Description:
The chain is an alpha+beta fold. The protein has helices spanning 39-49, 91-94, 126-139, 187-192, and strands at 11-20, 31-32, 55-64, 70-78, 95-116, 156-159, 174-185, 201-211, 214-216. The chain has a single domain, classed as Alpha-Beta Plaits. A hairpin with a 2-residue loop joins strand 8 (201-211) and strand 9. The longest helix is centred in the middle third of the chain and has 14 residues, at 126-139. Residues 188-196 have low confidence and may be disordered.
Amino acid sequence: MNGSTTKSRLLRLKVWGENACFTRPEMKVERVSYDIMTPSAARGILEAILWKPAIRWQVERIDVLRPVRWESVRRNEVGSTMSPRTPHLFIEDQRQQRAGLFLRDVAYTIHAHFEMTDKAGPENTPIKYQEMFLRRAEKGQSFNQPYFGCREFAANFAPIFHDQSLPEPIAENIDLGWMLYDIRHDTRADKQNSHSCTGGCRPLFFRAKLDNGCLMVPPLDSEEVRG
């Protein structure tokens, strides 16, 4: 493919739900959410609607459509995970009560494009996948239920077509500090550690700022992305 056909046009998706938790990695025990959706969470929603080896999503901007509201919840969690060496797990013995600081009544507009990867064949074009994504989003189709950070917080979604006006973001400016951008995977390590991120994953961060309700997301190869 030549350079003019390796990138889609900008696609926009509105997402909303009752609760969200975009967990801050520095919190070791309790779940505490970032103030708004992270780029990796936005990418996860897009991939839930359309993922193919031939495309790679890049989030460009996230608009916050509702004021940031918080909700403190105590819930039961399991304190360990199953493994081949421990095939049996007794929930009553492993149950732990933990507090969580979650977001409530959330809504965002995700602005993103995708790029064609080296796995794209001659029949794979940006237009083909653009139409596929919009068609699936309009019908509410997804490979798995999109969610806001935690699987129990389901995300509703609908495409915003280019002849439609954009929802108005909130009129707030917030310095969000260092925010998780995404997780970079070492594919060789992934094969060796299929059940763990040990040695195979590296978190990436960027300095996030909400400007009139809009979070601009730098490209992955930008100097603004650290990790």
